[in-house]
Amino acid sequence: MSYPYVLLSAAVSLDGYLDDTGPDRLLLSSPADFDRVDAVRACVDAILVGAGTIRADNPRLLVNSAERRAARVREGRPEYPLKVTVTATGDLDPGARFWHTGGDKLVYTTDEGAQRAVGRVGDVADVVPLGPALDWRALLSHLHDVRGVRRLMVEGGGTVHTQLLRQGLADELQLVLAPLFVGDPAAPRLFGPGGYQAGRLRLTETRRIEDVVLMRYEPTAPGSGPLPAAADRHWLRTACELAALCPPSKTAFSVGAVVVAADGTELARGHSREGGDAVVHAEEAALAKVDPADPRLAGATVYSSLEPCARRASRPAPCAELILRAGVRRVVTAWQEPDTFVPGADGTGVLADGGAQVVVLPELEDLAKAPNAHLLG
After folding, report:
1. Nearest 10 degrees: CA dihedral of 347, 349, 353, 357?
2. Is residue 24 predicted with pLDDT exceeding 60?
3. Rounded distance, CA 143 to CA 125, Å?
4. Considering only CA atoms, which of 97, 83, 21, 91 is closest in space to residue 49?
5. 190-202 average pLDDT score
6. Contact at 8 Å (CB) between 264 and 250?
7. Under a CB-based contact definition with an 8 Å cutoff, are residues 109 and 87 in contact?
8. Which runs of consecutive H residues, i.e. helices, occur in the chain?
9. d(C-alpha 170, C-alpha 163), whole Å
């Protein structure tokens, strides 16, 4: 499955309550921040809110700037991003502004909710049933593969934000902190209770915007098992970027690798031909920097832009074997090794036979191939 980049956007008070944007309600964002949000909307392919937010706040979810809309059109994109909502029951208000402003609209719902949703908004929106229950992975996959959405902005509400974060599907959190205390126990919270991914989020930016502060975070903790998490895409993208640092070669691939502990701590990174060693492989270079006795290796993930090698002549052990010897049992890669140098290579098979889980993220294959274009014809 391939998913769009998922950006969660919200404003909160100092005591943790969610922005309430309905008419005659408390606004936490400043005018300058509303303009920033408008700029973010102009850059995405779709904007998603839960049906509860439509009922409570009656948002329009538009790109308000005429200049930004014109720029989208010049780029060959629709004037407005696709507007998306999610409802388990299909209980939607056909009179809401969401349906009568902007461009195309899309409703994701259950099999049971689909009939009701079609009856209420089927004349203004496409309705897509996802099965007996709402499935966020199926929803994101449909957005990516069928609707061509590459960047998705999620503006609420708290239930939607909670579900995406708990399932490890949010690539970025943009949080605006307002200098206000709400103090109302009935006000909506940004996130609900439950089990979230382990590890600290990485703070990637802080910015003062009038009297509010924007903080941007990205997840760091790898997924577990066969289902990818948003952090897996971040780390694998890093591995692909490391591949671009490799000295060019006509006889070997350029590969990058990162070893990441279960809590999101980077243990090591490496790339092919690192340090002037003409035959060192990326996974080999990275693992050599980690103490073999480090207990974190057992729960770590190795990210490699290319499938770890199964056979090689330049070293006693291939990278797939080195990974297994290190105790790592999860590997994420973007590209399976072609027959260019080693016909029938099957590092994935070696890893699987050794008890490791291999996850392939094909959406990053082109990035992994880029520094190897001269070898691929």
Report:
1. 80
2. no
3. 15
4. 83
5. 84
6. no
7. yes
8. 31-43, 51-57, 66-74, 111-121, 136-145, 158-166, 230-243, 282-287, 319-326, 347-353, 365-369, 373-376
9. 9
Distance CA 112, CA 68 (A): 39
Omega before 157 within 30 of 0, i.e. cis: yes
Among 144, 58, 153, smallest CA distance to 101 is for 58
331's tokens = 């590997």
pLDDT at 20: 55
What is the reported pTM? 0.90
Rounded Cα–Cα distance for residues 272 and 319 (Å): 12
pLDDT at 78 over 80: yes
Q: Are 300 and 328 in contact (CB under 8 A)?
A: yes
> Where does residue 249 rank: exposed (0-12), middle (13-18), buried (19+ CB within 10 A)?
middle
Q: Answer whether 284's CB lies under 8 Å from 271's CB.
A: no
Residue with tokens 């924007």: 214
Per the CB < 8 A criterion, the answer to whether 287 and 318 are in contact is no
Whether 27 has a pLDDT exceeding 80, the answer reads no
The torsion angles phi and psi of 270, rounded to 5 degrees, stand at -165, 170
266-271: average pLDDT: 98
